[in-house]
Amino acid sequence: MKSDSEIVLRRRELIAGLGALVLPLTAYSSLAAPMQSVTPKQTEGPFYPIKWLGDTDWDLVRVKGEAAQAMGTVTYISGQISDTTGKLLKQLTVEIWQCDINGRYRHPRDGRQTKPDLLFQGRGRVVTDDQGHYRFRTIRPVSYPGRTPHIHFAVSAPSGRRLVTQMYVRGEPKNRHDRLLNSIRNSTLRERLLVDLVPADRIETGALAGKFDVILPA
């Protein structure tokens, strides 16, 4: 039969062993939810909208006061804005701008000779809701000389923090040769800017939809 001193010693050994197990588990749990990387930055480009007056809402396809809508495939782009810790960011301003179906921006310095689609709003601005969500109705981006299809994004916080990037369409052949997209050498980060555009007839007949999340620094 073991003495009292042997029993106490055994208990101490068991407690020490359990403590050794707790440390690895704690370390593992801290690695289970690593901080996410910031969405890669991209150039604002020469055609950031000069005027935000008039119709600049979430729907770029239909200009207020016009009976017809813009040419192109209607595309719904939505997503969530968060920081690197996973915190959802509300009341952030999300802006997008892109060229119309003919490759023209709604900008006075775009001197291309193609005819502009005056029914395309060209730029939109919304504010994220309490869960960091935003949504736009636009057209599927098209290419123009030197660029693969893309949509410009700018996300701004009330503090003045701002991130500018671009969204690209996954599977576009011209992606392979786009200088700005491929300036992101890290393939994992580059993938963050690629979005699948899938049929969205449940939202609108003939429309497409894609999800583009943006992560800001904490």
Give a structural overview.
The protein is of the alpha/beta class. It has two domains: 1-34; 74-216, Protocatechuate 3,4-Dioxygenase, subunit A (Sandwich). Helices cover 17% and strands 24% of the residues. The protein is built from three helices and ten strands; from the N terminus they run αββββββααββββ. The strands form two sheets. Strands 1, 4, 8, 9 and 10 form a five-stranded mixed β-sheet that branches. The chain has a five-stranded mixed β-sheet with strand order 3-2-5-6-7, with no helix packed on it. A hairpin with a 5-residue loop joins strand 5 (150-156) and strand 6 (162-169). It is globular, with a radius of gyration of 25 Å. The model is unreliable at 14-32 (pLDDT under 50).
Largest sheet: 5 strands, mixed
The CATH architecture of the largest domain is Sandwich
Secondary structure category: alpha/beta
At the fourth level of CATH, the homologous superfamily of the largest domain is Aromatic compound dioxygenase
SS strand fraction: 15-25%
On the 0 to 100 scale, the average pLDDT is 88
Low-confidence stretches: 14-32
CATH class value of the largest domain: Mainly Beta
- Radius of gyration, CA atoms, in whole angstroms: 25 Å
- In CATH, the topology of the largest domain is named Protocatechuate 3,4-Dioxygenase, subunit A
According to DSSP, the number of beta strands is 10
| Number of structural units classed as domains | 2
Terminal CA distance reads 61 Å
Helix-strand string = HEEEEEEHHEEEE
From the spread of the alpha carbons, the general shape counts as globular
Number of helices: 3
- Measured as a percent range, the helix fraction is 10-25%
